[in-house]
Design goal:
There is one protein chain. The protein has about 260 residues and is of the alpha/beta class. The protein has a single domain, classed as 3-Layer(aba) Sandwich (Rossmann fold), CATH 3.40.50.1820. It has ten helices and seven strands. α3 links the parallel β4 and β5.
């Protein structure tokens, strides 16, 4: 099985430099459809689906490999190597922000720069660290997902999207969550929400931009600020956008911020 088939890799554009887009939990590469095309004139854009999402090869899902974010980061490195990428730019949303961080550490020459959209190094509060959730809240969230995938999707997606005046956005995210294989979704959710990548941030050599929504119930301002403080060559741009998915709710603002960083 080729890496390109396994991860449904799609290459577009014509620039000498590549820009790799990685989607978040419960989503697929379609979530970048309002952002990625804006860069096709100047970059070769690379989109893919994590194994278990979108049109990836579900038969490639391995519970042991994907029991940590490191397994997903290995896939990103393999995609980069298969395409011969060096000095590329990585744009990762939500959990893919930390997947990109891990990939950049595994292969420092792969990415010259990172754009982390709504990143969180740890979702659970820990002593003087504020992740936004207590351990009990996360366990309740995961239990709800495991017991009722459809109900969890219908309730959580609009809250995560965070734009109640535009219900069609919450509906799209709900549908995306519902399309995900329930068994894989509950395992990926557990890996995502129980991850702790705080110690990895200082190892990042690539220059980094954190894109932080002004209001985000999943990764709040204090979380984005923490990531920015811990990654050596980083800066943070606070978007006017609200919610955890500005790539859908405010794509023009995301495009403008990335262009300014480039």
């Amino acid at each position: 099985m080729s890496v390109e088939f396994r991860n449904n890799v799609q290459v577009r554009g014509s620039g000498e430099r590549a820009m790799v887009f990685a989607h978040g939990f419960g989503c697929d590469q379609n979530m970048w459809r309002f952002v990625a095309p804006a860069f096709e004139e100047d970059f070769t854009t690379v989109l893919f689906d994590h194994v278990g999402a979108g049109r990836s090869d579900l038969s490639a899902y391995d519970r042991t490999k994907y029991s940590s974010l490191s397994g997903y980061a290995d896939d990103v490195v393999e995609i980069g190597q298969a395409l011969g990428l060096r000095g590329a730019m990585f744009v990762g949303h939500s959990v893919s922000a930390m997947i990109g961080v891990l990939a950049a550490i595994k292969d420092p020459g792969l990415f010259e720069s990172l754009v982390l959209v709504g990143p969180s190094a740890r979702y659970i509060d820990d002593r003087d660290y504020v992740g936004g959730f207590s351990a009990q809240q996360i366990e309740e969230l995961l239990s709800f997902l495991e017991e009722n995938h459809m109900g969890w999707s219908a309730q959580m997606a609009p809250a995560i999207m965070g734009n109640p005046d535009r219900p069609e956005l919450g509906e799209e995210l709900t549908n995306s969550f519902c399309r995900t294989d329930p068994a894989i979704a509950k395992e990926f959710a557990r890996v995502t929400f129980l991850s702790d990548n705080r110690a990895d941030l200082a190892k990042v050599q690539a220059r980094t931009l954190i894109l932080q929504s002004s209001e985000d119930i999943i990764a709040g301002m204090q979380v984005g600020a923490y990531v920015q403080r811990k990654i050596p060559r980083s800066r943070m741009t606070v978007l006017k956008a609200t919610g955890h998915c500005p790539n859908l709710s405010a794509p023009a603002e995301v495009v403008a911020a990335i262009r300014e960083f480039v």
